[in-house]
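Example 3.2
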Amino acid sequence: MTPTAPTYLPFMKMHGLGNDFVVVDSRDAGVQIDAALAVAMADRHRGVGFDQLAVLSDDPEADLHLTFWNSDGTLSAACGNATRCIARHVMDMTGRDTLILRTDRGLLEARDAGGGLTAVNMGHPMLDWADVPLASAHDTLSLPLDGSPVATGMGNPHCTFFVPDAEAVDLEARGAEMEWHPLFPQRTNVQFASLLGPDHLRMRVWERGVGVTLASGSSSCAVAVAAARRGLTGRDVKITLDGGEIAVRWADDGVWMTGPTAHVFDGKWWIG
């Protein structure tokens, strides 16, 4: 019997402030991208390792359609840093300075912000309890939980705690506990943020379906919105994450985030 030839899946490894991704173009893949493949590739010891897997496909109304898998094999509607990374790559390849990308969050505009930075409009925040979503009606500006966190929807749910010192928080314990809180029927991303100065926040993040990450784009947007709603900052802020700094502006047309990206390497995943 002639052995079946192995199939190789091309991919790119990218990161935004240490929030890392594997990017697969399904138009060239020739294999089915599913939860099992995402989990296998996400393994940092036996696979490639990533926080999210981003899959590219055609879209009749946008330049690309992006689908995001978390490292545990669940889907996510939004992934801001991966969106910026992909936008940067496409703009570099095509010479364009604006793109429209579709995610399950909706149509997102990306722009070349100059100086090697890339900006993406993550859309308007969802502030009503049913849209976050929460399991029952509550004021999203002050949830009935210890620490009175803020709930924000950015295409995925977020729970933001404002604390005196984000560095002092046991992120793994608190994040894991809050991700599965019954108030969040779809689980939640969890952030702990402290004010460093005028319009400057320090934020650490636990991502739903991933765990502790060095950065998170949608979480950065959620924290900026929550801080502005609380009156802690204006609508244009700098956020310092474990992986670096990102700028977020809550504008009339949505929440814009701007920061650096990196294309680390290209590879092939062996299937067979």
